[in-house]
Amino acid sequence: MIDAERLSEIHNEHRPGSNYAKLENCRYEINEATAMMKKQSIPWVLTTSKSIEEIATTVLQAIKSDKTILG
């Protein structure tokens, strides 16, 4: 998951000044995604201040520790 402020910055790079990039909209998107993942028991990773390598390591460690994913 990403911080709403950072998501807004990214959206602003793609569509400057749009409703899509507004902080309020980004907070809504994140809240909806969080609610969906909690409802479905889907784990997530906080990614705002992590490098892609750190994110990959976190995901791989989670997969290795979850026997059901590995079969």
What features would you describe in this structure?
InterPro entries: Kinase-pyrophosphorylase. This is Phosphoenolpyruvate synthase regulatory protein. Keywords: Kinase, Nucleotide-binding, Serine/threonine-protein kinase, Transferase. This protein is an all-alpha fold and 71 residues long. It has one domain (4-70). It has 4 helices and no strands. It has helices at residues 4-14, 23-39, 52-65, 67-70. Helix 1 (4-14) crosses helix 2 (23-39). The longest helix is centred in the middle third of the chain and has 17 residues, at 23-39. The chain is flat and about 45 Å long. The model has no long low-confidence stretch (mean pLDDT 90).
Structural key phrases:
single chain; 71 residues; mainly alpha; 65% helix; flat; transferase; protein serine/threonine kinase activity
Category by helix and strand content: mainly alpha
> How much of the residues is beta strand, in percent?
under 5%
Average pLDDT, all residues: 90
Domain module tally: 1
Brief rundown of the structure:
With 71 residues, the chain is an all-alpha fold. The protein has helices at 4-14, 23-39, 52-65, 67-70.
